Amino acid sequence: MFKNLKNKLKGFFGKTEESKEKTEKKEEKKIEKAIKKEAKKKIKTSEKKEEKSKETTPEPTPEPTESEQEPSEEKEKTKSSFFSKIIKGTTTLKQEHLDSIFEPLEMILLENNVNLSTIDKIKSNLEKDLIGVETKKADIEKTIRKSLSNSIKEVLIEPLNLIEKIKNKKLEPYTIIFFGINGSGKTTSIAKLAHKLKKAGIKPVMAAADTFRAASIEQLKIHGKKLDIPVIAHDYNSDPAAVAFDAKDYAKKHKLNCVLIDTAGRMYTKSNLMKEMEKIIRVSKPDLKIFVAESITGNDATEQAKTFNEAVGIDGTILTKADVDEKGGAALSISQVTGKPIYFLGTGQGYNNLEDFKKDKIIKNLGLE
Ligand SMILES: Nc1nc2c(ncn2[C@@H]2O[C@H](COP(=O)(O)OP(=O)(O)OP(=O)(O)O)[C@@H](O)[C@H]2O)c(=O)[nH]1
Ligand SMILES: [Mg+2]
């Protein structure tokens, strides 16, 4: 995840590195020239002395060739780096400095699926953090890097410890419902989470409340068999709300701690399907409503999160297929747009490929630590 965004940010900051190298080389050249000039002068004065003693007319001092001339101020300007163009010596950062810094950064973020409102939020965080700050030219890269890292951390939302929350619910089983568009990774994520919970000493049950898609019930039953976790199912085309209700009932009777409800993939634009979703929620009274989205779909995933949130209210997101997403902007955008945490990242097809969402890890993946 973030491979592309990380490289772009590296390039953005790398410009100062490049400039450091250039400046050093320039300095070396200057010294070399100064030594050569000094040597020439010495030769000339000794020649002059010789000539004077011979009482002949001295030769005119030759003009330095173009390559020997000191670089003009204009040349210095065009050669200077992106950041050093903005900062001279020690500078107190102002809005216009921030605007120049943000212009290329905005392009990088846009190209990597960060949506506009999230970019605005990062920008305003950067402004809050940097305007009025006194920085030296030599420290500017570090200052901006740190501030960008803080700005992104402010946009990302980490969840509370889900395992603790489930364990702390004593009287009733903790109920989680999963929804999202077709093929986003709901069923696989439920199986991965069930496996994680079981490893943590929690006893889950899975509810096959996708009674619509062919083979969906068998798919969940296969996971249940492999993981040795019970699955509650009715027939195809039966009422999904009734399946969820029965699974909860089964959990209570068998003293299981957690119910994981799978639902059919639905387009958020279909109002009848969203109404059905509302009914399942009303009947199962979940503690947590998890929206499942594919990270690779970028701004589409962000748009879905917004619409699902408005329709049924989401408590958090699982972002799947992060293993095949090189951009990663959806993680930033979905957090910002919904104001709800990302619980997990799906990082592959195996049962262990469900990573806790940690801000520090994201910052590390972005190369911004
Ligand atoms: N690489 C990768 N593949 C994943 C991940 N999560 C799910 N998949 C794959 O995505 C495909 C769809 O996953 P499902 O879990 O069936 O998706 P769904 O949302 O339940 O699909 P519907 O029930 O048809 O709406 C499967 O081939 C999964 O193996 C992930 O994190 N990484
Ligand atoms: Mg499914």
Give the neighbour order of strands across the main sheet.
5-4-6-3-7-8-9-10
Strand content: 5-15%
SS element count, helices: 14
The beta-strand count equals 10
**CATH level-3 fold name of the largest domain:** Rossmann fold
Mean of all residue-level pLDDT scores: 85
Just give the CATH class of the largest domain: Alpha Beta
Largest sheet: 8 strands, mixed
What ligand molecules are bound, each kind once? guanosine-5'-triphosphate, magnesium ion
- Assembly classification: single chain
Distance between the termini: 16 Å
| Shape field | elongated
Radius of gyration: 31 Å
Which residue ranges are poorly predicted, with pLDDT under 50 across at least 5 consecutive positions? 16-20, 56-80
Q: Supply the CATH architecture of the largest domain.
A: 3-Layer(aba) Sandwich
How would you summarize what this structure contains?
This protein is an alpha/beta fold and 369 residues long. It has helices at 3-54, 73-79, 82-86, 95-111, 116-130, 140-155, 162-168, 186-199, 216-227, 240-253, 271-284, 299-312, 329-338, 359-365; strands spanning 90-92, 134-136, 174-179, 204-209, 231-232, 258-263, 288-294, 316-320, 342-346, 354-356.
